[in-house]
Specification:
- Keywords: Decarboxylase, Flavoprotein, FMN, Ligase, Lyase, Magnesium, Metal-binding, Multifunctional enzyme.
- Its EC number is 4.1.1.36, 6.3.2.5.
- One of its GO terms (molecular function) is phosphopantothenoylcysteine decarboxylase activity.
- It is built from five helices and 14 strands.
- With about 220 residues, it is α/β, with parallel strands linked by helices.
- Strands 5-4-1-6-9-10-12-13 form an eight-stranded mixed β-sheet, with helices on both faces. The chain has a two-stranded antiparallel ribbon with strand order 2-3. A two-stranded antiparallel ribbon has the order 7-8.
- The mean pLDDT is about 95.
- The structure holds cytidine-5'-triphosphate and calcium ion.
- The site of cytidine-5'-triphosphate has 16 residues, from α3 and β9.
Length: about 220
Amino acid sequence: ALLDASPKPLAGKTAIVTSGPTHEPIDPVRYIANRSSGRQGHAIAAALAKLGADVTLVSGPVTIPDPDGVTTLHVETAAEMLEAVTSHLPADIAVMVAAVADWRVASSADQKIKKMPGEAPAPLMLTENPDILKTVGHHEKRPRLVVGFAAETQNVEENGRSKLQRKGADLIVANDVSPQTGVMGGMRNQVKIISETAIDAWPDLGKDEVAMRLAELIAARLA
Ligand code: CTP
Ligand code: CA
């Protein structure tokens, strides 16, 4: 970084990125989660920083290291992620990559839930989590550029388009997360960039390369 003379088209811009899964507690020792590794979100945070942005990364629980050159905040639940993101507005750019748990347990237990021999387990009552991207996309301090992801296992374009509209995003990065693609938890990603006017299908790339291309696209859209 000391001798980094690469172009900084995002110098002076602030960005908020979410990454990783969230963990929603069932009781003190158990939680609901998903297979997100945080690799794509962390790579995007690093790529935006490389182009000169002042980046705050709000990360759910992941095993990968904090990226260099980025301020990383660690959260566990969707509620904590929402609070961390909204308290960092205003920003110029928001890229919501996290695989936020769609539901949390309606009232998580204070004590470890014990199994009762011979009795059927109690059902878990779930309630919907806040939608962080949608909140940011309709916020009074809405960033100039709001980017979301769409994790799909079918009808990728159609579902991506509807998320673009519903969530008030400028761009949706849609990907197929079916198990056979290996995207969830893996190193590579094949995405479609969906805007109001176009769909651009990118080739299968490493997640770092998707991140760099996306950061360049963001810089071009803000220029
Ligand atoms: N997202 C979010 N907060 C949530 C759920 C999703 O910020 N509670 C964001 C994700 O970070 C992503 C986008 O919304 O940028 C789409 O997430 P996705 O899971 O694909 O869509 P959902 O709206 O949750 O719909 P579904 O899971 O039913 O497809
Ligand atoms: Ca979801």
